[in-house]
Amino acid sequence: MKLFFSHFLRLIILLVLVAAGTFILLSFSPVDPIRAYIGNDLLHVPPEQYARIAARWGLDQPLWERFGHWFWRLLQGDMGYSMLFNMPVANVIRERFATSFALLAGAWLLSGVLGVTLGFLAGRFLYRWPDKMICRISYLLSSLPTFWIAMLLLALFAVRWPVLPVCCAWDPGNNAGTALLSERLRHLVLPVCALSLLGMGQIALHTREKIASVMKSEFIRFARAQGDKGWSLLRHQVLRHAITPALCLQFASLGELMGGALLAEKVFAYPGLGQATIDAGLRGDVPLLMGIVLFCTLLVFAGNTISAWLVVVLNRSLERPDAL
């Protein structure tokens, strides 16, 4: 219980600091929300109407006063109203994250499974050609930006060989309520592949290094002396110790995954939370940006907390006598 309250207090402090810092940074943005909202019709808007719009949105108030009003409404459960989508911020985040969740979950699972598998194979054939090939591929994937991988996949499998959709989360003319599951899955393939390659290389390299260090440990020598060897040794002794850092890295990399999703959704015109973030930034929708930043902060904090909890739990299980 004490640990729970400690993490909860850290979360509250983090959210307050992130909210204040984000609000201050957005106040220096060169984007005029009213100009971005009205567009080319700004020339036909008289100064009196411009002032009324600014007063309605609270843009005529000092920075500290605007932040105070926004924060007070947040404490009451009101995240504000999106000027871009003309609906409450909470509704925008809920609808957009429901679309992004399939992309994030698919990429998270695929990168973890492929990364651990490749790291396991590299550790099994340490310093031989499979290990060298996997390491080179992993280093290459770790250095490539997400948008470049996304554009490459798009050019190959949607333009050069048009076997998959070019963009969006469903076919033109459909929406979230009418799109079929098979249709959604087809549109998910390229974004999930692009996003999963972002973290796969790092997980493979971490798993490979952990397997290499475990293979040199005393309990592995003891297991070999008892006749355990080959794939049986790797499966029953090595992998259970090497899987811990891979799992922790997976949960701790949620922030990087969400950053990659922002770029991937832009390339594939995927109507998720990342696309909404970019649109809100370009149009100066401060309430929506603040809500998305706090929501993403909460997810990243949850991932890091789960990662720290897994380290404690898995290390305790490995320290038991029957774990060796």
UniProtKB/TrEMBL annotation:
One of its GO terms (biological process) is transmembrane transport. Keywords: Cell inner membrane, Cell membrane, Membrane, Transmembrane, Transmembrane helix, Transport. PROSITE patterns: ABC_TM1. It holds the Pfam family BPD_transp_1. It comes from the Bacteria. The chain crosses the membrane at residues 7-28, 101-127, 139-159, 288-314. It is found in: Cell inner membrane; Cell membrane. Residues 97-307 form the ABC transmembrane type-1 domain. CDD domains: TM_PBP2. GO terms for cellular component: plasma membrane. It is a multi-pass membrane protein. Belongs to the binding-protein-dependent transport system permease family. OppBC subfamily. This is ABC transporter permease. It comes from Salmonella anatum. The lineage of its organism: Bacteria, Pseudomonadati, Pseudomonadota, Gammaproteobacteria, Enterobacterales.
